[in-house]
Target: DUF2867 domain-containing protein
Amino acid sequence: MLIDDILPDFHFQETHSILIDAPAARVMAEALAYKPEDDAFFRGAIALREAPIRGWARLRGRTHDRPAFTLDNFTPLARNSQEAVFGMVGRFWQAGYGQDPLADLQAFETYDQAGSVKLVLHYHIGGEGKACLTTRTRIYCLDETARVNFARYWMVIRPVSGLIRRRVLKTIKRRTLGT
Model:
């Protein structure tokens, strides 16, 4: 799998799957077209996550004009007919997400900022007859400081992240089947 080539070693991982009675190509097209920001729960979770940033800006008499977090925060890293891998790097536990710019796969592979993590989001379609769509998130911590900081953050966000992933899969299934 592409994810194993891009991030074979990891410290944290979350995986969710769903069976969809449709051709794999159609399922992948729907997965790639999906925008989580269309989901009210996702928007609410992000608004809650960003509330301290916006509140702090207001207290300082400023506006927080940064766009809300979306799938556009991820950089496409690799893709084939059965898989798509997106990545991001930084210190995501920081109030402003601590995301560092990432141009492409090469930048992802060579990224080595101390105290940071590498994260990949992976869509994979397998199975025969019915397509099995799997979403997998992997996080690799570049050092012990990053591992400690991310572990604390992961404990808080993982339940919400899992719920969002399951909602994503159900929505992709519904859209694929036209129901």
Q: What stands out?
A: Helices lie at 2-6, 24-33, 40-59, 105-110, 144-177. The chain has a mean pLDDT of 90.
